[in-house]
Specification:
This protein is α+β, with helices and mostly antiparallel strands. Helix content is about 35%, strand content about 20%. The chain is globular and about 45 Å long.
Length: about 120
């Protein structure tokens, strides 16, 4: 068992996100409950090393864009503007300060390659 030098941020969609998703052309019918159950968990710097509110203020746009792009590659169908206020109204944020790895194998890391919206058009 090992403690990892990261904290966990879980983004749980709220009803406005589910409403936006349901109006997309060809969108799957997914309840807000299902979206919240299957929400994304992200490793962030350990909360002892950052001020979470400052971290979120700096990174909300990238987080918001990634969540929207998971469901819709056409950014013209995204809400505008992608403000911090809108982000906070569309997601509940759960921050878990301690992350413990219960697996004895070393962590495998793969570079995250975000979807390039500009090249998709």
């Amino acid at each position: 068992m090992f403690e990892v030098n990261r904290s966990v941020l879980i983004l749980k969609p709220r009803q406005p996100f589910a409403d936006w998703l349901s109006q997309l052309p060809g969108a799957p019918q997914v309840s807000v409950e299902q979206l919240r159950r299957d929400s994304n968990a992200l490793l962030i710097p350990h909360v002892d090393d950052i001020e979470p509110a400052d971290f979120l203020a700096e990174h909300y746009h990238a987080l918001f864009s990634a969540e929207l792009a998971d469901w819709c590659e056409d950014d013209s169908l995204w809400p505008a503007p992608l403000s911090a206020t809108l982000f906070m109204s569309w997601f509940d944020l759960d921050i878990h300060p301690v992350l413990t790895d219960l697996v004895s194998e070393p962590l495998a890391r793969e570079a995250f390659v975000p979807f390039d919206l500009d090249s998709a058009q």
